[in-house]
Amino acid sequence: MSLPIITIIGRQNVGKSTLFNRIAGRRIAIVSDIPGTTRDRVSINTHWSGNRFDLVDTAGVAGNSNSEILKTEIDLQFTEAVRVADAIIMVVDVMEGVTSGDIDVINIIRKSGKPCVLAVNKVDSPTREIGLNEFYSMAIADPIPISAYHDIGITDLIEKIFELIPKRDQEIYEPNGIRIAIVGRPNVGKSALFNLITDSNRSIVSPMPGTTRDAVDSTFTFQNQSLTFIDTAGLRRRGKTQESLEKYSVIRTFNSIEKSHVAMLVLDITEIATAQDTHIGGFIDQASKAGVIILNKWDLSENMNIDSELLISKVTNTFKFIPGVPILLTSAETGFGVKKIIPSIIRVWKEYSKKVDGSDLSKTLFDAMGEKPIPGSGHRRPKIFNISQTKTAPPTFSLASNNPHLIHFSYRRYLENKIRKMFGFDGSPLVMQFTSKNDE
């Protein structure tokens, strides 16, 4: 049975994300004093006093958005978050009292019929407790005073919300499965692809670059394989990333890559292999993650006379540091090629988590050294005595040598290529660790 979903809602800048982070126990949603910081729904599987549940943070009702398109999309996200919730925490600000925006939120909750607790935030002094009286007029639930920032009243709030949720059997929490980070520059089509893949509208799709600021997760099963997709904020060129808010989103993107097994790098065929594209690819390589490259907006190729073979060849040469990476042509606009994405991800995941036979591995090493001996001379001539695979995801190999520091990078790469030729590992990094061992 699925876990209960608790959704935090309210108008902009009342402290929803601070409360979300407090309950989750770590900083997940972006927190800022800029109204409207959380644009997408952000969710996490968490627990409190033995009760496991899905906690959802939402964008505030977008009453003052500069873009009518974005305002409509955020409000649609808000309505959908309420629809799927088992219970709702409505957050209001004691310092501002009851506002027209609060009334708008109440009306949405009443129409949904969902159980709700009213969290009056920023009540961190006896003086501010006086302001609670005004919120009884909202007639939706008795107000619970809290301070998300100072961790006041949070336990009472959670205990109250669980009183409202029907008891259900807790599902077995299964942390296993493939985690995929969707990364790329802003406006290359990440969110549109995310929505097509997950069959969900959880991530806002807009022509405005940088619409997704938070990392948004969606987990589902494909052919008995659990997959969790993370739609991340687009990485901008460093010179354009000026606001601290955007800088934090970049950090979140890096963190999403580090938490993933497979990074799905989305490129725009109208502006391919930019410096920022290669920067993101380099980070995937540094983080030792498997990769899949998506060449999106293929629906525009006909008007641009783009040759698919030449395009794929260019991308292959640009991203040589991800050997054998699958490169897919897609169009989020038409759906072309999207069905190939998940099978490609599962394929590279299998390579990423593959364990090879030890005797075959040793034979590959000694055959390679027989074909091309390690360069060197004299008593310090480097030797490699043995090799073993010490872990998977990423595939990691330990090679014992008398003088590992004398084994040149080019020879290390030669051995890696021999291992790849024998065992595959397409789209996956290989970690080669050379350790010291006395010549016996």
Characterization of the model:
By secondary structure, the protein is an alpha/beta fold. It folds into three domains: 5-164, Rossmann fold (3-Layer(aba) Sandwich); 178-352, Rossmann fold (3-Layer(aba) Sandwich); 358-436, 2-Layer Sandwich (GMP Synthetase, Chain A, domain 3), CATH 3.30.300. It contains 13 helices and 15 strands. It has helices at 16-24, 68-84, 100-112, 126-129, 154-164, 190-198, 244-259, 275-286, 301-304, 308-318, 341-352, 358-371, 409-423; strands at 5-9, 42-48, 51-57, 87-93, 116-121, 143-145, 178-183, 216-222, 225-231, 262-268, 290-296, 327-329, 384-391, 396-401, 431-436. The strands form three sheets. It has a six-stranded mixed sheet with strand order 2-3-1-4-5-6, sandwiched between helices. The protein is elongated, with a radius of gyration of 26 Å. It starts with a strand and ends with a strand.
Number of DSSP helical runs: 13
Strand order of the largest sheet: 2-3-1-4-5-6
Specify the structural class.
Answer: alpha/beta
Order of helices and strands: EHEEHEHEHEHEHEEHEHEHHEHHEEHE
For the secondary structure, the number of strands is: 15
The best one-word shape is elongated
CATH superfamily of the largest domain, by name, is: P-loop containing nucleotide triphosphate hydrolases
Count of the domains: 3
Give me the Rg, rounded: 26 Å
The CATH topology of the largest domain turns out to be Rossmann fold
Q: How would you characterize the largest beta sheet?
A: 6 strands, mixed
Pick out the low-confidence regions.
27-41, 62-67, 169-175, 201-213, 233-249
Given this structure, which CATH class of the largest domain is correct? Answer: Alpha Beta
Mean pLDDT: 81
- The N- to C-terminal Cα distance equals 59 Å
Helix content: 25-40%
User: From the coordinates shown, what is the CATH architecture of the largest domain?
Assistant: 3-Layer(aba) Sandwich
State the assembly state of the protein chains: single chain
Approximate strand percentage: 15-25%
